[in-house]
Design a protein that fits this description.
Strand order of the largest sheet: 1-2-3-4-5-6-7-8
Low-confidence stretches: 1-24, 411-435
Order of helices and strands: HHEHEHEHEHEHEHEHHEHEEEEEEE
Structural class: alpha/beta
Length: about 475
């Protein structure tokens, strides 16, 4: 394929110009997906970026966008969400430079989405202003504050610390051009994980992402820095590592129909090579944090996007066991401006008026076909009689996954206000009741949005 030849040429040039040590460490990955073994792995956890604002490679300036419509956005998300599995919303462009107003803005979004039953992850950008740039101590304190304030919500499940630090030429989309970005990545990850452990936020996982890809000498410098300045303390703080890949759009830029499958395999194999050189083992799972293909008719048609979406998602699913991939996010729900000549505003599965493109239906179908399924929660309802009052508690191996529980005694004549909310744990609550026989019922809501009804028969309580 054309891009394979381009990649090979890039490799030859890079090897010719690089120092011997760099040449030995260059990672060019697999270029033929058909030659790579497909190993089995757990089903993927899917999601999407719901916001419309995109970072712009090369152009630098963020183009204007059409306003969001919250009601239409929620409806669009509902059409993608599986009924029997999780769905993660990736909140991107969370800027350090935005200060308290930015934190409150993203907190409000997190609360909105998690109350609707979605899981949320954050892209926490370094992106400093002129006064902040290079002040890693202040950045670390900001990261810790974000963990404290967002980790208390048990449906906020991940924080990506910094964005695409290996990219140094696009400050709008990526953090790598800012002073101290590599240290911000390392120290931010370590601090975030330390705060998670201190606070007991077991659901909150910490990672960082890598953009596929810059030129080899720059990549060698980036990964060598992580190895030399991060070391074991950095690796031990990682719960996952992210890959942002746009084959046929960013790298490789040329579109060859069906070639996106080779592009995804090349991205994963290249990443594993570089990550291994920094001491990050393959046991640390990959999240595909950004993946997509923008439209720009007539050159980039809606029909092409639908075909590419099928190719991209199935490639990730086919090789999930080979490269230890657990998560996938499409970028993004809707266009920023469907009428713009800049194709970077048209990654959406929907137009800027929330009209579904053909790829919307493709992604919805693939999510339902390939998604991780919820396991039946392992919970028990126990009751006891003491001092003529009934007590109830939810327990079991999955009790730490409970967000809240509502208890009631199953008859119209029984108390109706016996509501007991809990945060992250369950303790007993007692109820006044007469000596007649009722059903004790607990409706339990889990962190991932599922509900479960637990029943116990109860009788006299006169001890």
């Amino acid at each position: 394929m054309r891009w394979v030849r381009l990649l090979a040429l890039t490799a030859v040039v890079a090897l010719g110009l690089a120092a011997p040590a760099q040449a030995q460490n260059a990672c060019f990955g697999q270029t033929d997906a058909d030659s790579v073994e497909q190993k089995p792995g757990p089903a993927l956890r899917f999601g999407i970026t719901p916001g419309v604002q995109t970072g712009q490679y090369v152009t630098g300036a963020v183009p204007p966008r059409t306003p969001e419509d919250p009601a239409k956005q929620v409806a669009g998300l509902a059409g993608l969400r599986p009924g029997d599995g999780p769905f993660v919303l990736r909140l991107h462009r969370f800027f350090w430079s935005g200060g308290e107003d930015e934190i409150r803005r993203v907190l409000a979004l997190s609360d909105l989405y998690t109350r609707a039953g979605y899981l949320v992850e954050l892209q926490l950008r370094y992106h400093p202003n002129a006064q902040q740039e290079g002040d890693i101590g202040a950045w670390v304190e900001h990261v810790r504050e974000v963990v404290r304030r967002f980790g208390a919500n048990p449906r906020v499940v991940a924080i990506q610390v910094t964005n695409e630090v290996n990219i140094t030429f696009s400050p709008d989309s990526s953090d790598g051009s800012y002073t101290g970005a590599r240290d911000a990545l390392i120290e931010g990850v370590v601090a975030a994980k330390d705060e998670v452990r201190k606070r007991g936020f077991r659901q909150l996982e910490i990672g960082f992402n890598w953009a596929y890809r810059s030129e080899p000498s720059a990549e060698n410098g980036f990964w060598s820095y992580l190895r030399d300045h991060g070391g074991p303390r950095f690796v031990e703080a990682l719960d996952w590592v992210g890959v942002d890949a746009y084959p046929g759009t960013v790298f490789p830029p040329a579109h060859t129909e069906g070639g996106e499958r080779d592009g995804m395999v090349n991205a994963f194999s290249t990443f594993r090579c570089y990550a291994g050189s920094a001491g990050i083992p393959e046991t640390v799972p990959i999240h595909v944090e950004e993946n997509g293909w923008p439209t720009a008719p007539p050159e980039r048609s809606y029909e092409q996007q639908a075909k590419v979406a099928e190719t991209l998602v199935r490639a990730v699913n086919d090789f999930r066991g080979t490269y230890n991939i657990t998560d996938y996010r499409w970028f993004n729900l809707r266009d920023g401006d469907t009428t713009s000549p800049n194709f970077q505003t048209q990654y959406g599965l929907m137009t800027d008026e929330y009209e579904p493109k053909p790829a919307y239906g493709v992604y919805s179908r693939l999510v339902r076909e390939l998604t991780e399924r919820y396991a039946k929660p392992r919970l028990t309802l126990s009751v006891r009689c003491r001092a003529r009052r009934w007590g109830a508690a939810v327990g079991g191996p999955d009790v730490d996954q409970v967000l809240s529980a509502t208890f009631r005694v199953g008859d119209l004549h029984a108390p109706t206000d016996a509501r007991a909310p809990f945060e992250r744990s369950i303790s007993a609550r007692t109820f006044d009741r007469d000596r007649r026989r009722w059903n004790m019922v607990a409706r339990v809501t889990l962190i991932d949005g599922r509900t479960a009804d637990l029943h116990r028969r109860i009788g006299r309580c006169d001890r």
